[in-house]
Specification:
This protein is α/β, with parallel strands linked by helices and 219 residues long. It contains 11 helices and 6 strands. Strand 4, helix 9 and strand 5 form a beta-alpha-beta unit.
Length: 219
């Protein structure tokens, strides 16, 4: 049965729009290894996937001790700089976003990234103007994912009721946030096993080319 058109589509960024997980995980792993917590990029992914930086810091400080003032800001600046020069899109993601907009459906982006990093990613992907002011980082809401705050704010920015919105996520934390907000959640399976996403109520899908049909926007 054909789904009704969503009132808005709310996108995660890392792993959904931006192929940033590997790059970020390498930078985090290098930083932690230098501080005595030997870690590979893959181990960083397994440990921190979907976490906002304040939550990451709690885990890190429990292992290596106090990180000191300015650590989070310095790491965010390094990540943002790398994003501006090295980041690539998830295949088909920018085109999928523009297709949603062309169909007349508002879009927003909601990411557990820091504000500086998120802005750099969207500039690099040439999507900053597409989302406009409807961009939310963990710094813009009281609580990061898996709390629903970010997706509630994104829905409000689009003038839409959360229950009429579709969230596009790839992490367990993000899927839980979308479900908690009352949205329908499509779970992109590039980084997370489909069974994990389905277990929390997301609808798994594997190809951005299928997004228009899943949203009921395809001709």
């Amino acid at each position: 049965m054909r789904r009704p058109r969503p009132a808005a589509v709310l996108f995660d960024c890392d792993g959904v729009l931006a192929d940033s997980e590997g790059l970020v995980n390498r930078l985090v792993a290098a930083e932690l290894t230098a501080r005595g917590w030997r870690m590979s990029g893959e181990q960083a992914r397994e440990t921190f996937l979907g976490m906002a930086l304040p939550d990451m810091m709690l885990v890190i400080e429990a292992r290596v001790g106090t990180l000191g003032p300015g650590w989070a800001e310095a790491l965010s600046a390094r990540i943002a700089g790398a994003m501006l020069t090295e980041l690539e899109p998830i295949p088909g993601a920018p085109e999928a976003v523009r297709a949603v907009v062309a169909a007349g459906v508002p879009v927003a982006v909601a990411s557990n990234s820091a504000r500086l990093e998120l802005a750099a990613k969207l500039r690099r992907l040439d999507l900053a103007a597409v989302f406009g002011t409807r961009v939310f980082s963990f710094e813009d809401v009281p609580r990061p994912k898996p709390a629903p705050d970010m997706y509630l704010a994104a829905a409000a920015a689009c003038g839409a009721a959360p229950a009429a919105c579709v969230v596009v996520e790839d992490s367990l934390l993000g899927a839980r946030a979308g479900i908690a907000a009352g949205c329908r959640v499509l779970g992109f399976t590039r980084e997370t096993d489909r069974a994990v996403l389905a277990a929390v109520g997301a609808e798994p899908f594997a190809d951005m080319a299928a997004l228009g049909e899943l949203l009921g926007l395809a001709a």
